[in-house]
Amino acid sequence: MDEVLRQLQSKFKSILMSTYRMEEEIAKLPAGSLVRSMQHGKEYYYWKRPVDGKMSRTYVKRKDLERLKAQYQEKVCLEARIQQYRGWLMKAGQTLLSNGIVP
To answer: pTM of the prediction?
Structure first.
């Protein structure tokens, strides 16, 4: 049983460090979100982000669209993975604490 708890504690540390690294990667990506708008039957993309406490919307040029789509997709994937890891970390932390081990 002690070996299983040690493995769980080791896994807890590695996932916690992975979460920190993913949060650092998200911080490097542009803040905000990519928004698609249909006007007169045409698609337009805008980058929506907070500026001075208000939401600002900036038109995205076609030449920048693919790069921003990739960055936004990466950000969404990282945020989803962080949410999964946090759920696991909460459950693992409770298990470790119930057995007298500080995570």
So the answer is: 0.75
